[in-house]
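Please describe what follows:
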Amino acid sequence: MNFVPFSRKQLRVLTWWCKNSPDSGRDAIICDGAVRSGKTLCMSVSFVLWAFSRYSGQAFAFCGKTIASLRRNVILPLTAALEELGFSFEEKVSRNTVTLAYKGRSNLFYLFGGRDESAAALIQGVTLAGVLLDEAALMPRSFVEQALARCSVPGSRLWFNCNPEHPFHWFYEEWIKKSEQKNALYLHFTMEDNPALPEEIKKRYRALYSGPFYERFVEGRWTAAAGVVYPMFSEKRHVVSALPAAFERYVVSCDYGTVNPASFGLWGKSGPVWYRIREYYYDSRKEGALRTDEEHYAALETLLCGLRPEKVLVDPSAASFLECIRRHGRYRAVPAKNDLLGGIRRVSDALREGRLLFSADCRDSIREFSLYIWDQNSGEDRPVKEHDHAMDEIRYFVNSELAAPEDDFFALSLSR
């Protein structure tokens, strides 16, 4: 592990709880801002050092969106740093606990995932001396509030870390805007606050995002999504008149509809690029007649023209159509991963990098790209539910075939 000095802001995170710090009277700390700004590691190290300065034999909690992301983004770099400082640790994966020991003191740290509303039940009944919530803005409010309610040991403190979301988000409204009212230290980070981050990596992340995701993850602003969802899409760049002569793989993506339009796309892979070869788009309102599952299945076979795709990705809510495909026994039907915002980011990345190209014959999906806009009246991040049927199944496809491991780069900052 490489050691470099901490920045002034990171040092404030590391020492806010110390007796001589002007922030020592705070009950909580909130760090938000850009990706790779160094806030996660310094906060997690500070959390453990504070715990051992105050307690021995107590229980604490690290919370992330999932246990897997928590281990990858927090626990792995943290334990590497703590080993350098002389800590010993024992992880029990089956129990999702880590026991840390240092100079005769020992404390237990639970690991919790706050993926959805049901996660709040997992943390009930535990008594904690402190909790660190990584990616707090991605967790349901019920889970966060349940975790905070568990901190009933005298002297317990709260630690929050997140990247920005939209400015109507409950965490922004209730904690960041009310940080003084809640006696919380609020620190905003940019990539410049991480001295371990090389300039070429900063350039990579500045090039990686656009639109609201750039404003949030690079500039660190809580900003509302507005305008066209995919402003980087260009017919000149992304639409081709001639397709490759052969493809290595085939996949189909389906957004099923009866009253609403149904959209199916046939994708072929050639080298690093996936081409949308052709599509089926049926709007019952426009055509004046509904189609059954069997009629849509017949259209799927026509779309494929004898090709055998690896899989047919189907809208997970379309249970009857999934069963229809399986009953015919010809194609492997798979429920699609319907990750909305993560999928939009992945589609944006693929378009910007030129990994998705479209046959000029795919007029309905090309048309929807220009009409797919953010809903500015919803109070949350979501597109308007119109002109989104091809957009949904393109997202299903990208979530399946182009999803990269999350947070595949770590930048650590440690003092000697």
Observations:
- The chain has 15 helices and 15 strands.
- Residues 67-84 form the longest helix (18 residues).
- The first strand starts at residue 28 and ends at 33.
- Confidence is low (pLDDT under 50) at residues 406-416.
